[in-house]
Amino acid sequence: MAHLHSLLSLSFPTAPTLSHSHIHTSSTQPWPPPSLLAAPAATSSRCLLPHRQDFSLSVLLFSFHSEMPRRLSAHLPPLPQPQRLAAGLFLQPGLKLAKEDIKELLKTKFCHPLLVRLGWHDSGTFNKNIDEWPQRGGANGSLRFEIELKHAANAGLVNALKLIQPIKDKYSGVTYADLFQLASASAVEEAGGPKIPMKYGRVDVSAPEQCPEEGRLPDAGPPSPADHLREVFYRMGLNDKEIVALSGAHTLGRSRPERSGWGKPETKYTKDGPGAPGGQSWTAQWLKFDNSYFKDIKEKRDEDLLVLPTDAALFEDPSFKVFAEKYADDQEAFFNDYAEAHAKLSNLGAKFDPPEGIVIDDGPSQPVPEKFVAAKYSSGKRELSDSMKQKIRAEYQAIGGSPDKPLQSNYFLNIIIVIAVLAILTSLFGN
Predict the structure, then answer these.
(1) What per-residue confidence (pLDDT) applies to 24?
(2) Which GO terms describe its molecular function (predicted)?
(3) How confident is the model over 283-339, as pLDDT tens digits?
(4) Catalytic residues
(5) pTM value > 0.70
(6) N or C: where does the chain have the smaller number of CB atoms within 10 Å of the terminal CB?
(7) Residue 161 to residues 272, 292, 386: CA-CA distances in angstroms?
(8) CA nearest 186: which of 204, 202, 164, 203?
């Protein structure tokens, strides 16, 4: 949960150094500059920017490696449906590859709680009472700016940005807003939690002036914990069930007193790491996502496990208690409600391009090898002769196939074919 993960300080080996160029501290100029978008009175604007129908097809070729299409889209009318579909197809490979890199990062750095917190703190600033973007806050990548990283609730999240930045550099077409939420959902799933029904295509804010003001994220020890939780999370548009379900993410992570003021310096569960030792965890297996958080709070038998005022409120408040008791007894119910609440939280305040978002296919990126069987080429009941099978096999191998490996897909050719088909469809039906 965002309010409590603000107190987490997950330990892990020293992260790679993040240069100042990666933590944005000053305003950036919009791209393209307004001067290029405003045509002189005697000049047709078409001379400066081609018709969107033609221009979008060429822009798509760059979407995997550059943020240019996203920035340009802010100055142009929305893409027609066929081109928006193609834009999603082009972004999917980058998102899928970034997810694989995040999985590897989790295996080596054990940073699951930190990445969950990163995604939540970017989206948890949302205010449903403000309509304008990005003033409403939410999942917009603003947490990458130093001014927001310095908010008290975000202490230590600069370490998360250091871990994520190399992946951002590698897949520059993926926005920070998407990458933060991708990392958060992946961390839950890789820790044994439920699969989160995510969508992508979030647009980044472009300048630190667009960051939300400090104070939108909750505290862990307010005078009236239950009332405070409702005040903050109702502002986001979340209800009691979602508040309790999201709290269950405290099954991951630990709190360090030197950073948050909460927890013990060390317990029997944290003295040996993984990562840098120390801190106090909410659960004994603090890198495993399950319902033990609710069980442990309910029993209150282990002094080495952390229970904050906002944790205890889940079993003290009558409305919260209904869900907390349910999740302590039924892990499947917790997983179902948590996955739904996490997905909702990850979308708060986001502006999507395309508007309907992009869903990535988590299936295998490469085709499953299939052995060559010449008999598949038989016609009717007549079996091919051995000489014909040998001839087919030779031709199959001549173009790159083998008995144990399928033909490699020509992805560039497939891309050109898709674009060509979309161009034809647009010409026929676009007008």
Answers:
(1) 45
(2) heme binding; L-ascorbate peroxidase activity; metal ion binding
(3) 999 999 999 999 999 988 899 999 999 999 999 999 999 999 999 999 999 999 999
(4) 121
(5) no
(6) C
(7) 25, 29, 61
(8) 164
Which residue is associated with the tokens 């919260």? 320
Cis, bond preceding 274 (omega within 30 deg of 0): yes
The pair of structure tokens assigned to 303 is 């002094």
Can you state the percent helix, strand and coil of the chain, rounding each to 5?
50, 5, 45
The residue with tokens 């939690």 is 193
Give the three-class secondary structure for 68. Answer: helix
How far is 83 from 267, CA to CA, in rounded Å? Answer: 55
Mean pLDDT of the chain, nearest integer: 79
| Residues 133, 203: Cα–Cα separation, whole Å | 10
Query: How far apart are the C-alpha atoms of 355 and 357, rounded to whole Å?
Result: 5
**From CA 170, how far away is CA 98, in angstroms rounded?**
8
Token representation of residue 70: 């996203």
In this structure, what are the phi and psi dihedrals at residue 352, rounded to the nearest 5 degrees? Answer: -105, 145
193-212 tens-digit pLDDT: 999 999 999 999 999 999 99
